[in-house]
Amino acid sequence: MKLGVLFSGGKDSTFATELADSGQNEVVCLMSMKSENKDSYMFHTPNIDLTELQAKSLNLPLISRKTEGKKEAELIDLRRLIQKAQKEYGIEGVVTGAVESVYQASRIQKICSDLKLWCFNPLWQLDQEELLNQLIKRGYEIIISGIAAYPLDAKWLGRKLTKAMIEELVELRKKFGVNPAGEGGEFESLVLNGPNFKKRIQINKYKIQYKNHAGVFSVEDAELK
User: Fold this and answer.
1) Which of 8, 120, 132, 165 to pair with 28, CA 20 to 30 A apart?
2) How many CA atoms lie within 13 A of 217 on its CB side?
3) What is the pTM of this model?
4) pLDDT digits (tens, 9 = 90+) for 191-221
5) Helix residue ranges, H only, 90-222
6) Which of 22, 30, 190, 147 minimizes the C-alpha distance to 95?
C-alpha cells in the first residue's frame, strides 16, 4: 500500500516514517503543514522548514502547504494537502506520529475517512518512556527544539536526547506531571539523524529565544553532511 506521512521533522513523525515503510507498505511521500500560528492546535512549528533537508536525507519527495493555523479552519488546509498527495503520488493511506493526542488523531481520522484513505498510527498508545528508549536504541539523533512548560528552562533547548535525559524526564513526570515524550505539549523535538537517513543534518547557526518557561531553538543555517 502506498502511504504518505504527515511529517513535522520531530521524533514521532520521523519514527513513524521508518515503521510504516515495511512489509507490504511503502512510504512514497512526506506531507508537511507550515503553520503561521506558533501555538497551532494541530501542527508542530519549530524549524518546520528543515523538513526539506530531512526529506532529501530520507530520499523522499516532500509536499507542503501553508496555513494560518486557525483552530479547526486549519483542517481544511490539511485536507487539501492530503488530496494533493492522493493526486500526485496515489497514496492509499496516511501515516501519523500520534501517540496520545485524541484531538489530533480523531481529526486526521475523519479526513482520511472522508477521502477513503487508511489512517495508520504506528506509535498509538506506545508507552512514552519505551518510545524514547526505542529511539536511542535505533540510533536516532534528536534535540529539543521547543519547550512550553515548567520546570523546563532555556538549558533544555538544543539538548540531545540521551539515556540520562530520559531518566530526568521520568523524574519530572513523578514530581510535576510532565509527559516524558512531550505528549502534553511540554516540548518539541528535531531529528538530525536516524537509521533511514542517508546523511546527517549539521546545524551551523542557531538562535535561542526563551521567556517564562517557553522557548524555541531556531536553526538559522544547516546542511547535510
Assistant:
1) 132
2) 25
3) 0.95
4) 999 999 999 999 999 999 999 889 999 999 9
5) 102-114, 128-137, 163-176
6) 30
Mean pLDDT for the stretch of residues 97-113? 90
Structure-block grid coordinates of residue 2: 502506498
Percentage of the chain lying above the pLDDT 90 cut: 85
Q: Give the C-alpha separation, 14 to 144, whole Å.
A: 14
**39 by DSSP, 3-state: which?**
coil
CATH (residue range 140-224): 3.90.1490.10
Dihedral angle sign, alpha carbons of residues 61, 66, 69, 73: negative
CATH 3.40.50.620 domain range(s) in the chain? 2-120
Among 139, 142, 143, CA closest to 195: 139
Q: In this structure, what are the phi and psi dihedrals at residue 5, rounded to the nearest 5 degrees?
A: -105, 130
Q: Where are the alpha helices (DSSP H) in the chain?
A: 11-20, 51-58, 74-89, 102-114, 128-137, 163-176
Nearest to 95 by CA among 170, 19, 186: 19
* CA 179-185-190 angle, 5° bins: 95
Residue 96 has φ and ψ, to the nearest 5°, of -125, 160
Give me the CATH topology for the region 2-120: Rossmann fold (3.40.50)
